[in-house]
Structures are given as structure tokens and as C-alpha cells.
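Morning!

This is the sequence you dropped in the shared folder:
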Amino acid sequence: MNINSIQMVDLQWQYKRFKPEINRAVLSVIEKGNYINGPEVNIFAQELSDYLGVGYVVPCANGTDAIQLALMALNLKPGDEVITTCFSFFASAEAIALLGLVPVFADVDLLTYNIDPSAIEPLITSKTKCILPVHLFGQASNMAEIIDLAEKYNLYVVEDVAQSLGGSFCINGKTLKLGTIGNIGCTSFFPTKNLGCFGDGGALFTNDQTLAQRLKMFASHGSVKQYHHDLIGINSRLDTIQAAVLRVKLKYLDQLITLRQRIANYYSNKLKKINEIITPGWQMGANHTYNQFTIRVLNNKRDSLQNYLREKGIKSRIYYPVPLNKQKAIENIFKENSQCPRADTLCREALSLPIYPGLKKQEVEFITDTIKTYFTK
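The structure's back. C-alpha cells below.
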């Protein structure tokens, strides 16, 4: 088969798939001229609220803003500690540090790549106010144990669901969408996400009316009534055009996740037979959405495998090469020099393979055949 190049994600695929609907939605906004806070923003918020089964959705400009707004709404004070994972994108630690809070990094579970609840409790102090789990790569954190810890120590829980929107977790016999289990959920609509727009975008979710009101105020310069400002906030809006795009794509989110899961199942079945590869684990009671399909490559062969794939025209990515507790930008901010040896292992071994709903069967077969060839050559 002649395959010249396989991308990590084809952002044009979804546009082509839903082109007529998206074009109508975008042109409608342009024709009306309601570019900022147009009616599509509130309609999308209600539709997403219905999909998630949550009381309130507050749109914002991006996923990083969402985390910052969540922490602002909880009225945390400089010096308060927030426990989060040390293996994730920098945004979670950045938002904590920007507010003068102290990020405290817990190690991860090597099966799911998510924060290990057993690593959280030893880090809790009198200054701890919040746990911030990141549902990484589409996989749910163990929310049952995290909620138990939060209730035991009277802590807030802010869920980062940027990579896992549409996923779920069964807690106390009830299946809930990720982002709706803690006090506040945060997401990103970055184009590569499960639900992505054509630019930047984000949202927050909560069942608490008071928190929802505070989130809206903080996202709008601390204001409820125009030109009357009760709080020091920020300017964080979801553009109307992006809301219109998201309204179209939300209707198909579950279908697109199913396509991701089918590709992931094929990967897992083919690659689990290779001794030097560990395929992604599965959190009990959870629905993995596979925003990324991330394997572990053993025996220091990760970089060599990535180079081999590149030579064959297959793109792959390393998420993430440096754990958060070793990032230079915050090395003097967080509490102590946290040791996260399992995160260090993932930084050496993790490799993400192409996965998006439009990835063709022949391409997935070519990727797995190429990987098998690498380990048998």
C-alpha cells in the first residue's frame, strides 16, 4: 500500500464530514453580525449542559482560562495548596501558579497515566484546599477515591476534562459524565480535542448555582451588570462563531468517540502481542474516549521507534517529555522538590500514535504492521 504520510490528526476531516451544517452555522453568525456573546453561545451552553447532565455550563475563551476561573471562583488565597498530577500539559500547574497558589505534585498510576489517589493523601496538609485531577488522554482518573479523599479532608475537586470530554465514570452506582463529579469541571475546545472548535474555546461545568454565578462574573471582568464591577475578573469569552461550530459537532460527539474507540481496540489487539510495548490500561468503571492512544515503549526503544515511524511517513508525539515537577518555570514555586518516579518513567517511555475518527482502516493496519516490523527486524 502506498501511504505517503499519516498525520497525528487530520483537522480537515471533521470539517469535510460536517461541511454543509458548519457552513450554514458560521454564515448565519456572520450575516447577523453577533460576533461576541451572540445567541449561539447561550444555546450551546444549554445543549452542552443537557448532554453532560449538569446544572450549569459557563463558556470561556480556552481551557487554561477555565482552570484559572475555577480556582478563582473557589476563593482560594495565595499560599493555599492544590494537589495535581505531575504528568500532564503545563496549563494545570500554570493556572495554579498564576494565582499565587502552590502546586503540589502527586505521582501517577502507570496503568492509566492519571494521578494516583494513594499518592494524594500523604501530600495533604492544613494548607491543602483543592485536588485537581486531569483526565489524561481520554482516560478517567479514579474519581471514587478522589471524592472520598475530598470529603474526608473537606477539599474542593476541580476536574480537568480537556482531553476526555464525553467520557464517564461510575460512582456510587451512578454513571456520570467526566467534569460533573467534582465541584467544577473544566474543558478545552482546542481543535484536536474530542469536541474541538476552529480556534480556541473552553467551558466550565458545575451543579452549584453560586459557583456558576461567580464563574460567569470572573469570566466577564467581575461584572453582572454592564459597567458595574463587583470583582476583579478577566475577559474570557467563547466567540459566537466557535459556539456555532461546536453546536454542530456536539450532536455527533458520541459517534466520533465510538470511532476513536474502534481504532484504539484495533491498536490494542495488535500491539499487546509485542513484549516491549504496554498498551493503555483501563480504569474500572470508566469510559475511555481515546483523545490520544499512548503506549509505553520499554527497554529505551521509544525514541528509536519514533524515528523509525517517521522514516516510514508515520507521525507520532511524545506527551510529555518533562514532568511538571521538573519544569523550570515553576521550580521555585511548588512545594519541595516533589519526587514522581512513575511520571519519570512515562516521560521516558510514552509515545502517542495517530488517532482521530477519520483515520482509515488501511492506515491503522499500516501503522501496526510498521511497529511489528520494527520489533522483528
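Headline: The first strand starts at residue 56 and ends at 60.

More detail when I'm at my desk.
O.
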